[in-house]
Amino acid sequence: MTQPSSFVATIDLALADKMLADLKNQGFAITVPAYTVFSAKKPGISCTLYQSGKLMVQGKEMAQFIEFYLEPEILQSFTFSHPTAGLDLTPRIGIDESGKGDFFGPLCVAGVFAEGESIAALKSLGVRDSKSLSDKQIHDIAAKIRASYAYHVVKINPTKYNEIYTQFKNLNRLLAWGHATTIEELVNKTKCRQVIIDQFADEHVVETALKRKNLKVSLTQRHRGEEDLVVAAASILARDAFVDGIARLGRDFGIVLPKGASAATIAAGRKFLEKHGQEKLPAVCKLHFKTLDAILTKNKNGLDESTGNDLDYLED
Question: Which of 213, 243, 273 lies at the terminal end of a domain, its last residue?
Answer without folding.
Answer: 243
